[in-house]
Amino acid sequence: MSRRLELLSLPLDPLDLSGAVETTSAWITAESRTPRTVVTLNPEIVVQSQHNEALAQAIRSADLVTADGVGIVWAARQLLGETLPGRAPGIDIAFELMARHGASLRVFLLGGQPGVPELAAQQAVQRWGVTVVGAHHGFFAAAEDQRIAELVRDAQPDLLLTAMGAARQEIFNQYWGLIMNVPVMIGVGGTLDVLAGTAQLAPGWTRRMGVEWIWRVAGDRRRWNRAPRLAQFVRLVRRERRRLAAREQGR
């Protein structure tokens, strides 16, 4: 692990995809089975954390916080003068870990609508030969959280992919992490939908440029409410940059 940065009062580990996979892979194979959480930071999560202390605490408590979107790379350059080595989106970390470990990897898929995690499980087995030890949809009430956490614990996975949407998935992993006792727990957003085939993966050119979110928002009306958060993120970064500049001038 390299030095940890602080971006808009949140931690950020400057690792690219290769570094994130190496780190999480080492956690999976460690004999200690210490439970660890991974947050893949994007502008939407940053904006939500400004008004959601539980989310902010989940991010600060995470063992690994990677740059998911190009917006985070831009913000690090604007506010910290740091050029990050690359991005490490949750979907890419998850797919790389399953490809690397294959049948030796015990995976639990949590999230999506009823039926989606089961379809995703079938695809994961076909593509990488992983051992899926559990699959459960993400449409359950908070009163059911402990039951689900204990279900995960009893399955003894090495990797938990939690796909319940920004904030909900990060808070769930952090709060119930010690109960679930999974070596690597990652909030992966719509990854199970993509794996199941119920959502389309953004085109390669958008992913290479780091603007796949534009493609997703434009093509899915259900995501249109996310656009204002992206604008809020830009305003947040610019306001913080002005504050830092003013402080520097006052010295």
TrEMBL record:
CDD domains recorded: Glyco_transf_WecG_TagA
Top-rank taxon, per record: Bacteria
Keywords noted in UniProt: Glycosyltransferase, Transferase
InterPro entries, A to Z: WecG_TagA_CpsF
Transmembrane portions of the chain: none
Entry annotated with the keyword Glycosyltransferase: yes
Keyword Nucleus in record: no
One annotated GO molecular function: hexosyltransferase activity
Protein name per its UniProtKB record: Exopolysaccharide biosynthesis protein, WecB/TagA/CpsF family
Organism encoding this protein: Deinococcus peraridilitoris (strain DSM 19664 / LMG 22246 / CIP 109416 / KR-200)
